[in-house]
Hints:
Number of domains: 1
Mean pLDDT: 96
Radius of gyration: 13 Å
Oligomer: single chain
CATH class: Alpha Beta
Number of helices: 1
Largest sheet: 3 strands, antiparallel
CATH architecture: 2-Layer Sandwich
Strand order of the largest sheet: 1-3-2
Strand content: over 45%
Number of strands: 3
Amino acid sequence: xxxxxxxxxxxxxxxxxxxxxxxxxxxxxxxxxxxxxxxxxxxxxxxxxxxxxxxxxxxxxxxxxx
Length: 66
């Protein structure tokens, strides 16, 4: 049996939602080992001068506790 834990992460990118997700996983991976999944719970954007400025995601990142 595996013991799993989840943390909620907010991440952003000026490029895309996909890049924001990759940033969340990469940053979380610096302090957490054994990441198993990332569940995107919410996506949003910020607007500046009538253009998309930042892509934001709220992710639930799940990892195995050793």
